[in-house]
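ok here's Flagellar basal-body rod protein FlgF:
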Amino acid sequence: MDRALYVAMTGARATLQAQTNVANNIANANTAGFKAALSNTEAFRVPGDGYGSRIDALHVDQGFDRSAGAQQVTGNPLDISMQENRWLAVQSPNGEEAYTRGGNLALTPNGQLVTMTGHAVYGENGDPMVIPPHQSMEIGNDGTVSIVPLGEGPQTLAMIGRLKIVDAPAERLQRGADGLMRNTDPKQAFTQATGNAMSSGMLESSNVDAAGSLVQMIALQRSFEMQVKLIKSGDENTQSSNTLMRLGG
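and the structure:
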């Protein structure tokens, strides 16, 4: 009976972890560039002395859904949408380089280019980009940033830098707790993307299937309830067995 309790208990734990992933996906269904987290469970035989009868249900992080989200035309020159396997380099909270496909950018009062979550956007030289005062700005498909200075005509349009957009295969990326992606092999740095790396005036939507995620959440909830019932049944059976043993003694 204790084996059944152990399997049910570890299964309930794995189900709760999967629910957390699905809840996070649903919460980010409207987050630009968000990639849905994937999860699964697998059986793991607990090592140790004696007969190997303890099987643990483990929650397995399977990374993220690599498919592209739908494209939305916004007309905002600070909105960008990266091509496949292209990622925008930003500064993470701990100062390290990280990557995102959330292309809804903004300018701070001092001219620093940041994401909507406040992460500084890197230029191709690896430094945070600062945009001088200007009356218009545009970002080219190769990531070049050009401005028309204040008080000047359109003929003075000049390039001031280039966004650091890297060519990063999804299998070499891992999501951190802050939602940003990291290179799983820092010794092999990602290279600057060349050619048509992005489109401006557009945003990539989240690739989360909201309806499917809600159905998945309901299924996980039912699975959790079934596992809890099994734990309760096992406990009741154990108590009954102990009572019979006392009566028999």
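+1. The CA atoms of residues 109 and 218 lie 45 Å apart.
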